[in-house]
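WARN retry 2 of 3 for item q-0093 after timeout on previous attempt; input resubmitted unchanged.
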Amino acid sequence: MKNSGNERRNRIIEILSSSKSPVSGSELAKMLNVSRQAIVNDIALIRVTRPDLLATNEGYIMMHSSDNRRIFKVNHSIEDMEDELNSIVDLGGTVLDVFIEHKIYGTVNAPLNLSTRRDVKNFLNDLKSGVSSPLMNLTKGYHYHTIEARSSEILDEIAECLKEKGYLIEILSAATIYEPKKYS
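OK item q-0093 returned
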């Protein structure tokens, strides 16, 4: 017997919350004895109330809250993207995502999960393939990164480095992430 939709979605949240790595839609479908399409539909419904659920190329993952996480509003050119990202990972930070505040579309975000120079290189190579362009292109270089580190001291170092390089605009509370745009 299959679970009801609500029970299944609660179970998906439990599975993803307890997992330390991404879980594919196929894996979830097998665990819950439903089709992969049912999982895709459930994920879409869950994300309405749980924007901390991210879809990556390796599967779904729930972003875990952390005291050692900050949102950095930055601005720089495309040419400075590699320097910005490498500066963060070299100091021990993980760039969890990138997002922009678009005047029409509201918050547009994408998971990154970059924690090494290799991750940065692979990400930049994907961009260079020409299939897509960075979100920052839509907002004249302004964008946000949620950055996580082992300590608040590391986050302070990252902030100081980005400030010295002229990239940092401001630091926001992690509670402001993914607030959906309200329409009247």
